[in-house]
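Sample intake — Cyclic nucleotide-binding domain-containing protein
Collected from: Mustela putorius furo
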Amino acid sequence: SRDPHTLQCSLISTKYGDLPKEAAVGAYIKIHTVEEGDTVGLHQILLPENQLDIRPLILVSLGAEVIRVTKEKFCELMDSKVTEKLSRLKVTYPSDEDLCRKFLQ
């Protein structure tokens, strides 16, 4: 039998234990599909600051036109009908833990 060798590498600490720094990589996971006429991010516009999902999100477009409007400008243009619709809009994205579990399956 061979003698085991101990590898020396720098580690990063995660809530799941230590991980070799070289193994820490990014991954892209599809969490939502935006169809024609859909919006992204408006489900959070009426939430208080402490309830916002502030995880980074990357939108990949396959040729779609994206119109960005600042929150301030959108709120300035909102009327009571829009506010009512937004208050009923519920979108939930998976937790980081669920995404990690799905990725590792």
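Post-analysis note: The mean pLDDT is 83.
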